[in-house]
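Is cobalt (II) ion placement plausible here? Inputs below.
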Amino acid sequence: MSAFPEIDRIAYEGPQSRNPLAFRYYNPDEVVEGKPMKDHFRFSVAYWHTFRGTGADPFGSPTMLRPWEDKVDSVENAIRRVRVAFEFMEKLGVGFYCFHDRDVAPEGASLAETNRNLDAVVRVLKEEQARTGICLLWGTANLFSHPRYMHGAATSCNADAFAYAAAQVKKALEITHELGGANYVFWGGREGYQNLYNTDMKRELDHLARFMHMAVEYAREIGFTGQFLFEPKPKEPTKHQYDFDAAACINFLRSYGLAQHVKLNIETNHATLAGHTMQHELEYAAMQGFLGSIDANTGDLLLGWDTDQFPTDIYLTTQCMLTILKWGGLAPGGVNFDAKVRRESFEPIDLFYAHIGGMDAFARGLKIAAAIRADGRLESLLRERYASWDSGVGAEIEAGQHNFRTLEAYMLGKGEITPNRSGRQELIENLINSYL
Ligand code: XUL
Ligand code: CO
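Reply from A.M.:
I modeled the complex. Tokens:
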């Protein structure tokens, strides 16, 4: 039985189309910079928002109309939901999805029963993947919802919570492997603190590193060769999350010998919560060799929390794609819509509008970024700005031919620096607008 009988496969109809259930820019096989759009993006649906989001918020009850849900958190319900999810993703035309262990199957009365529940659902996920060709972009474990994780999981003060989390990630790695997952994500959940009076930060970070090393070891043992990813987020639910931003995560990975095993999954709303732009986080991660995948969404700059809205801002997607193209793309990562429809958008069809909007916004961003790159004016403005480093003393400094003494001699001889040139920010902003 179809869950979306009135909806056909979403087709590309071009910018002139007035059909709200069509793509106007996302044309999966259209080649941009030598690669089909679908391979640039590797779009993914986030199971937790799209199929488990209820619309509840701290002030109100669930609002979502989901006729396939029977309100009993049973394995049968979970299996029916998988069929619905794959019908949705097939009609939308995405190639990937992502899930937490607890999104797809209900917890049982014991860890053993929970694992059996997971196995039953994973069988169906596998079947649906084979039927549709849709792949798992990444798997992860929910180490934050259950009360046992109130103090965190790998960074809990309770060693048993660490042990339970280890057992849970062991299983999550097994099913991610079983489903051919391209990546495995760690998001810090409750790994962080509320105050330093009751927190041994050094000990907690040592534990987090030990935990990640155990995951890397176990992956090797079972033959999982997917990419590990760490997802930065500065706050929420804890006041200070240890995975604060790209720089903090990279420092952690390098300090604890994890750099060769783990890259980053960069999320827009997390970047802005940290006081950065998404492009800053992407650029920083990429230049350090840590750009793995992205969680595409957007926050509301007037609100100070993680609103996880679908990205529709063309400037944002253009900036993302400028950086992603510059550093050679995301694969084996992708563009995962870690985004939820507003609680007022409660009908199933809103899920289609939301994803179509996000995919079209990224497709436009890609085409605009490619046009900017092909045109070359932005690139030459950048080159001119740094021209002093291409010859003379600049080139000599870069080549390691100078020290403080030789530079003092150079400046004593010259007396004053060559005059500065305009940064031309307004000219550049006008230039960017001319492509939109
Ligand atoms: C939470 C968040 C998570 C991770 C996966 O803010 O982004 O959904 O992406 O645990
Ligand atoms: Co995320």
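Short version: The chain has a mean pLDDT of 98.
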